[in-house]
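Repro:
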Amino acid sequence: MYERFARVFHEGPYTAFSRRIAQNFIKILKNFYIRGNKVLDVACGEGTFAVAIAKQGFEVVGVDISEEMLKFAKKRAKKEKVSVVFLRKDMRNLDFQEEFDIATCWFDSLNYLLDYNELKATFEGVWNALKPGGVFLFDMNTVYGLFMASQEGPIYIQQSGENIFEVQDIEFDLESSVATFYVTVFERRKENLWERFDEIHREKGYKIKEIASALSTVGFTFSFYEDLLKKTLLSRFTRRLWCVARKETKE
């Protein structure tokens, strides 16, 4: 996954999401009285968020399943002259033990888990990775959010740059709550020569009660929000869910 798409992601508008979170990260931590310096960034991608908060003084470990994404992440850290540990790991099989104060997982990453048991396994791995009292911050597209995204088409331009042109078409299956993204990319190879490739990505929208069940089964206490800065609660029209999940301290 993300082998050819890694460069498209790296050079496209996608990184703006991670930059915005990084810019507000300390505010978010203060908003929820979260302390600690060691951060695990799950599904870190090409490292935008991990590198940005490392520049703020956090000790960061980023994990991702894509080798190509990690190559870009390591180049970004080197360019920015910060130390970040990047490891190739599947978020469904994390093997850390009480090493981190904070864990994060941003921008649709958890929606790529199409099976409830995989979502629960990921939450369990994060729970194990956190120290007692640690906090897991993440976001997910809601069922409503993915459905509404599918209504923006039929085909829309995701990015149009000097060297990359990308269009997407989204179909949403109401029965499974899975959105299928048909991605077509044209990359400039020479002045008047473009190469096309196509990818298919799938994201599942989970019901709020399913996410809550997975978190509570693992042992987290948690709250859901529509906005972490304003602490706005969810509504029926929330398109992106944000969560603050805590691993309670041992008695």
